[in-house]
Amino acid sequence: MNDQKYSIELLNLKKRYGDFEAVHDLTLHVKKGSIFAFLGNNGAGKTTTIKMMTGQLRPTGGKVHILGQDIWEDRKARKQVGYVPDTPLLHEGLTAREMLWFVGGLYGIPLETARQRADQLLGQMGLSERADDLIRDFSLGMKRKMAIAAALIHKPEVLLLDEVTNGLDPRASREVKELIKEVAREGCTVFLTTHILDIVEELADTIAILHKGQLKIQGTLEELRSVVEMPNATLEQIFLSLTGEEGQGGSQACQTS
After folding, report:
1. CA separation, residue 108 to residues 9, 102, 105, 120, 153 (Å)
2. 177-228: per-residue pLDDT in tens?
3. How many structural domains does the chain have?
4. Residue 230 contacts by C-beta under 8 Å, 6 or more apart in sequence?
5. Which residue ranges does the record assign to the ABC transporter domain (predicted)?
6. Angle between helices 111-124 and 140-152 (to 10 degrees)
């Protein structure tokens, strides 16, 4: 286990497209083992930031450190990250068990180890009875859980979750939330985006709100209330007050971008 205090450090991170700056001078420090919620409305720059964190998009400026290593200078640092995009990327012609074996192989995990790890994760996800069923026959909630299992097969120390509760029914949403809590209890740092602010209030240790590519605020919910001088405010009220989206109709104003 790396002895860094912070699992994730974004240092003056920037992304520019021509004259448009999608992410402006973003600095975040995410403590190891915490659940960190990264919020913002459409076009705020959240998905752009996550793509820079996962090595999909090169920053215009600044640094992305995972466990103290710059992912653009040391590509091995990326292996410490598990990533679940908003649309699960699964080979639906494989069974659940085969899918996890396949991903384990991509990470160079020995087959016997991958098999043991797959059985463990399928049990953790409540999917053991469906282990030999094709993924194409799974519900959306089951596919979300499969995507999380695939992201965890190599035991990453950082888990990035982009809108994993989108489109889930209440039972599936509850199961995914419990999984997130369990992963964090095991010491993995969870960095998530969601437009369902009730989930953030329930799960997150720290909250950051991004608006038009710039960090507006960061802290615990109580710290956010103190900064905006709204001691009894909900997260939704704080979000709307900071982003000027009062006319957007509740927590849906915080959709991913």
Report:
1. 27, 10, 5, 18, 11
2. 998 999 999 999 999 999 889 999 999 999 999 999 999 999 999 999 999 9
3. 1
4. 237, 238, 241
5. 8-237
6. 140
How distant, in Å, are the alpha carbons of 10, 52, 83, 93, 190 from that of 152? Answer: 22, 20, 9, 21, 11
Map tokens 């964090």 to a residue.
Answer: 184
For 214, the 3-state DSSP assignment is: strand
Cα separation, 236 vs 146, in Å, equals 30
Looking up residue 191, the CATH number of its domain turns out to be: 3.40.50.300
In a domain, 123, yes or no: no
Nearest to 208 by CA among 2, 3, 13, 5: 13
The one-letter amino acid at 256: T
Predicted TM-score (pTM) above 0.90: no
Domain-embedded: residue 114? no
